[in-house]
Amino acid sequence: MLTNFIRKKILQTESWAIDQTLILGVVILCSIGLVMVSSATLDYSYEKTGSSFHFIARHLIYMTIGLITASILSRIKLDFFNDYSKYFLIMSFALSLIVFLPGLGKEINGATRWLNLGFITLQVTEISRLFILIWICSYLSRNDVNQAFNKCLLMVIILSIILIFQKDLGSIILLVSSFFALSLILGLSLKKFFIHLVIVCFAIIPLIILQPYRLARMISFLDPWSDPSGTGYQLMQSLLAFGKGGFFGLGLGSSVQKLFYLPESYNDFIFALIAEELGLIFTLLIIIVFYVIFLRVFSLAKKSFINNLNFAGNLSYMIGFLITFQAIIHIMVNIGLFPTKGMGLPFISYGGTNLLVMFICFGMLIRIHIENRKRVSQGVQGGY
Predict the structure, then answer these.
(1) Is residue 144 domain-shared with residue 254, that is, in the same domain?
(2) pLDDT per residue over 117-148, tens digit each?
(3) Is the pTM of this model over 0.85?
(4) What is the rounded distance in angstroms from the CA atom of residue 199 to the CA atom of residue 196?
(5) Is 235 in the same domain as 384?
(6) Are 251 and 245 in contact, with CB atoms under 8 Å apart?
(7) Do 337 and 206 fall within a single domain?
């Protein structure tokens, strides 16, 4: 019985269809990530662990797990996620709350948003955010967005309240912005959009003012030179990296800032490291790759709606917004246009859970491509 359920309800056994543009974009970003994480961590890794290859080895492990996960997900019918979306919503809340249980949650840098499984530590906010977005995509595929918006917003607010206690404002911003963008593109009335957007913005202000460290980050964002050795230190070192790199960079492996000047140069500030070593020209090429992926995902969403695959269309849009907004926030933080947030660059930055979530999204996009090809081959309206 279980075997039949897996074969008929979950797994799809037809041959793969390959979205070459999407795959090439992800391969380029992952390759850059491997090179830059290696460059950023050789000295730091030796200082911390006694081995120069500790971090790059872990990054390779995370990437391998991610590729395997993406491969599996590309063979799972989208109907599985659509039919069982309510369970993903439940798991989203459950995972967000489980870190508060003694012995399971792990505090890092004053924030409790990691689940300690012994052999691995997961940042549950990344997974919770993805799960609730899957439910939103499913719910909006069956209901008019103007009628379903309030219920979806309520679920987003509930999860955001939990994330407040995990001190993860970055995840809240990414979750809310992705949800609002999807709602708008699906036809949410502009009046309702702007009214709720203003309310959300005013709700975020107290979260900044009432937390001293967030207020300090905001002040340092506005004037990093007011406290160059304190709250403004990260941003100043990031801007120095851009200045030193110029148009063509200092050369791969030649960064000065990564030598214990620029914090998190392998993660939150890897874009600044790329600018220092490979130059402004190379950073622009990375932005172009993200832009191509964005266009490809949106094209996939439009094809899905043409082929009457509404859930697939919603999911494509949502994944596109999730990847794009995270990349934009990361880049803006690195160049001083957004307050400092602990947010990596998709497919490039070091980080186990975020990299895994990105590969989950990648696997789903491949699956969406496959189901569109299948629908077209069956003679349903639409082309590819």
Answers:
(1) no
(2) 766 778 888 999 999 999 999 999 999 999 99
(3) yes
(4) 5
(5) yes
(6) no
(7) no
